[in-house]
Amino acid sequence: MGLLSTTNKDYYQGNNLGNYQFTSLDDIITQFQIAYVGEGKIIQKVKRADIAFHAQRGLQEFSFDTFKSCKSQQIDLPPTLVMPLPHDYVNYTKLSWVDSAGIKHPLYHTSNTSNPFQIMQEDTGEYSFPEDLELVINGDFSDATLGQAKPAPPWYINNIPKTGGGFNVVSYADYNIVSGILEFSHRTRTSHGDPSGWGHAMACWQQIDVSDQDYVDISATGTAADMTNGAGVLRVGLSTNPGDLNTRNLNSQTSASSGTNHLPGIFDLVDHNGNSSYLEWRSSDGTAVSKELLKIDVTAHNTVYVLTVSYQEFTGVNSTLTQTNSVDNISVTNSYASTKLQPAIGHAANSSTWNSYKAVTPSENDNDDYEDDTYWPAQGQRYGLDPQHSQVNGSFYVDCRLGKIHFSSNISGKTVILDYISDSLGTDEEMQVHKFAEEAMYKYIAYAILSTSSQPIHQQLAPRFKKERFAETRKAKLRLSNIKLEELTQILRGKSKQIKH
Q1: Using an 8 Å Cβ cutoff, are 83 and 407 in contact?
Q2: What is the percent of the chain with per-residue pLDDT over 90, rounded to a whole number?
Q3: 456-480 helix and 48-65 helix, angle to the nearest 10 degrees
Q4: What does the CA dihedral 86, 307, 318, 144 come to, rounded to 10 degrees?
């Protein structure tokens, strides 16, 4: 019976093109049990869980130096010059920017700068452990996402529901920063089987570190203006979870479900008296009012979210997007003096070293023609030129502390590609082994089980399988190197050219 169980049509119209070259890790485990485990075989008895553990470890090890890395991400580099590391990132293999012809230009790693943790100090130079330390970044919304009047990271917002297309896009709710104040706009909808009119409960949140805090204080300035057919509600507080991505706030639920943003229970922390950990503005005349809540208990948490929710209690239909609620000066401070080193004010994410580096024109922007005194200190000579700096593509470094890649300023706005290595354990779909390395995986599992067993016969067999594991791994590397004779010949033909000195 053949191995192929799908028709040609199913294959070519499906999403698993080229998948035949791989064997799933689950099949590897099953086939190992068939070939190696049982009476009269190398391993008399072993649990499937043990095989699965060693198989996953083997997949990780092979992913690092045997398998080819097929993972990559592409972004248009924003003016912040920062790219977050992928969620399954282990190490990079190459970073490049792409020109208009789709050609990749390699970027080079620089070790001459970094983004260190900048410590808060007193005027005398001593380290500071202050009380009333601000934990929120950009709580006054003075910084907006570049090119948009939206809160900038580390603030995050819900996806804004929209209708229409082309030039007729209309939002059902919206955010807007005006003069450093975050404004919320709302309108009603009559879909999802709810003809009475309903709206969206929008949320804006930021994760904050409270690992060295027992109690924190929260304050904000807010307004909650009514619409003609519904009261405005604004809440600011602390939660162990970010805002709900489902923004629907339905009056009657016939064909959809409401989210949780409009529910007070989303603020699931309490203050020292057991009261809810949020401030509320409701049905005001639009006048900004400052409020505060003291001593919110965060003893049991390392991180929490400062969360802002805005919505309308609709009682009728209003199709005009209207600004109603607004918030400013969101602040979370420690109730008692800190016991850990704190970042300098304004430098929690970006140190002065990184700010200085990204603010200047890098050496890579100097597109010199190599025919003046800059690169030709002596006639016909370029002695002393450092190869890592003698390129115009740009440079980068990896900030392991914050999990981001920082780029030189001449890469701003360009398309950047990150090719990287993962351990192949991120999802069930990627837990697979190339057939060129299948035998190497069996030998790896066998050696791992035998070498960790206390049985004398297994200890005798372990050296043999150690050699076989090494040999099969080397064979797999050669096979996966994908060397083609014709391609190699074509490359070597260029090597016969005369090399001038």
Answers
A1: yes
A2: 23
A3: 40
A4: -60
Instruction: Please write the tens of the pLDDT for every residue from 137-164.
Output: 888 888 877 667 888 888 999 887 776 5
* CB count in 10 Å sphere of residue 141: 24
Task: Give the residue among 398, 409, 430 at the shortest CA–CA distance from 95.
Answer: 398
Please give the DSSP secondary-structure letter assigned to residue 452.
T
DSSP string, 461-475: HHHHHHHHHHHHHHH
Question: Cα(191)–Cα(202) distance, rounded to whole angstroms?
Answer: 18
Average pLDDT over residues 468-490: 86
Mean pLDDT to the nearest integer, 36-47 = 90
Q: Which two tokens stand for residue 54?
A: 């060693």
Q: How confident is the model at residue 176 (pLDDT cuts 50, 70, 90)?
A: confident
CA distances to 264, 280, 386 from 222, in Å: 17, 9, 56
pLDDT tens across 423-440, in order? 888 777 788 888 898 999
Alpha-carbon distance of 467 to 214, in angstroms, equals 56
User: Which residues pair with residue 292 across a beta bridge?
Assistant: 219
Q: Which residues of 201-224 are buried (b: 16+ CB within 10 A; e: fewer)?
A: bbbbbbebebeebbbbbbbbbbbb
